[in-house]
Amino acid sequence: MAQEHSNELILRVAGESGEGVITVAESVSRVAARMGLHLATFRTFPAEIKGGPCMMQLRVSERPVFHHGDLADVLMAFNEEGVRKNLDSLREGGVLLYEASIEAPIPRKNGLACYAVPLQQIAVDEVGNPTSKNIVALGVLTQLYGLPKEGIVKLLEKRFGKRAKTILETNLKGLDAGIRYAAEHLGKVAQGRSLRPTGSSPKLTMTGNEAAALGALAAGLQCFFGYPITPSSEIMEYLAKNLPRLGGRFLQTEDEISAISGVCGAAWAGRRAMTATSGPGLSLMSEVLGLLSMTELPAVIVNSQRGGPSTGLPTKTEQSDLLLALYGSHGDTPRIVLAPSTVRETLELVALAFELAEKYQMPAIVLMDQTLSSRLETVDADILASLPKFPSEETPEKPNGEYRRFQLTETGVSPRIFPGTPGGYEYVSTGLEHNERGDPQYDERMHTIMSAKRHKKMASLARDPIAAGRSSIFGVEEAEIGIVAWGSTAGAVEDAVHLAIEQGIPVKAIIPKVLNPLIHSEMKPFLASTKRLIVPEMNFTGQLATLLRSTYRVPTIRLNKVKGVPFRSFEILEKIRQVAALPSRSSRASDASDLESVGLEQQV
Amino acid sequence: MECDQGAATFECYLGNLDPVWCPGCGDYSVLGAFIEAARRLQIPTHRLALVSGIGCSSRFPFFVNAYGYHGVHGRALPIAQGLKLANPELTVVVPGGDGDGLAIGGGHLPHVARNNVDLTYLLFNNSIYGLTKGQTSPTSPASLTTKTSPYGLAGETINPAVLALAYGATFVARGAAVKRDHLSQLIEQGIQHRGFSFIEILTSCSSFNTKHLNITKVLQRMSYVDSSPEDDLEAMRLAADQRHIQLGVFRNVERPTLEEHAAKAHQLSQKTGVATVETLLQDFA
Question: ipTM higher than 0.90?
Fold first, then answer.
């Protein structure tokens, strides 16, 4: 597919963890971003701390891309395992560059151009250091794919320049040696795939986790409490360093319960507070999430999903925390759930989560996943300017007469006063059912009134312009086949929809970003105009499909993947083709089990 | 009433709800001792924040005129820690029972203690679960039979003050509900102490476990620590004394609080230059 787009390249680098695979791929990524190209990456992590297979794929393109691409144009492999495990991810007619000292026979594949490159030999002969082979490889790629050498040099200087002059010199030597080798021996390899700088301005490159942290800082984060957990730890590490620089408070707690409790205390004090975690941590936080709903306090919880249940697949991706995010806690617990699908959106939606949580006085969960957390993507340098200017109400409005913390209002939102405020506003908040003043009162009448009050805020939020218009809708508007997807799956869906349309199959898709409350004004017209609805998700049971069926009473055709790796667009394309080939129906399918019987219900 | 002008009376600190504790409950006396301490210190009610979990004694905030947060079982300390870190201006007091603090919430005490958060923890020790009507608690005596230990209790009895000493709390004391004036002095000292103050309060349940905590017997065994011991081993020995129930201050030392550490972190972080979100973003160019 990629060959149809000019100025686009999908590169995969593979080897043993510790061989510098990520350094090579990240360097290419960052230089491409400085050329004004767009970028999306995907990397795997071995479960081990040292060693284990390691891979990073990157797609750079002149047009915006939000998926790392199905099949690579180029595979650079440092060892035999790197070749063997990744050969299937190389497209027909692609280029395999591999370490020449690999002894095992290289499997041959149709139309593949294979080149043994003596990376290690060059590193020993010309640099005097075998561990520089990754920099030699970077030199080779620089030469072959038209990367500006000075850009790479700048990156290396930034990385080593200050503290290690000799390391820098060694690396520059390795880079030159790689460039020379490629110029002399690999002249025809690139097949005219050289990347060209674009006219657009250089872009920022950051991971989803970094974007989440920056989004929080942009929204005025004041207190962070967290407990380390893969794959979200980088959020807390970034904030540990940078939140104090901006005057905020950071604390690593003894567990996730303490973390969300800290957020609760800080929120009661009137500060903007958050935590970041993954599934096991969110499970532990469930009870305090209910307390936050009950005492109507804002909180932002970023949850980067990984394979579950239990410890599951700690370093692999999944989208199986949706129902936990929506409902995880006893009782009826209104909360906001947002799901970004790109790095840029992560920054925007984390900032939005703060605004919505503050405005509607309830917790907001931002659902990311491992791929999105670790994905390196380009973001426009003016991203902050594009964030909507939310009004920040620092001092709460002081009501007259007797203060009622949980006063019944038109929107369900009551005036909030923070401890420390003088003037006779002292009150007690409680997790017990309470009256407007906040005093415990749990008779049947009060529980009905207050349950309705808390849920009224959800209805108000669903009508709020700042939550509206965030769904991505693309494809052929009148298509009968529609796709609803959420989170990082959106990139593969977008590619699949374009491919299907190219093949003459009309299809459309909607990616809601606000999953609780669902924005009916956006979902209903889409669903009403769709006869066959495909819901691809990285979970086994179809959690979004369940939500859609129960909310809108629509039949769904599920496409589930639980392999710990993201969708490839051809998997979604295949489903679209299958659904398009179904006998036509006079009206919308009335029962999902009709489709189950033709074997489409589930792909494992 | 001139409650916020340095002339606050005992009544100024009374909440608008009447206590719901059983007649004869020791918690009434603790409430009185606390309010008396707050009055002597003239803490403005709007600066006073009480955070509690679940249990009879955790209802405490409702009966005090102050800002209060009555949360979930076992999480009062971490909520209070977040509150104090967010607003160091507040005087934060955490009242709670032995089940709330040492059973379900027992994992938090070591960390809030070692962090040295500047708050006062009033641990009501009545050796029983009162609110759920008489089950064993971590401080119940080994022999106790209750509804959930009909054949006697498994496990050793926890000594709260010894734990707090071991966890590095900077102020550790023990008082008793029946010694109200002494307790009030301890609470006053605890609130004045800069750092984490742990006050174990022996109190009695008038509805359950009444035989065990026969107050006359307890009174006979009580003894006062004159001044807080210089070294930790002596403090431990006094707190763990089996023959006497020692009341008084076991430890009173100073070290930096969590809030002071946070302020220092802010200072250190400025060495690399003043940052804004805009300048942080440039690191990604």
Answer: yes
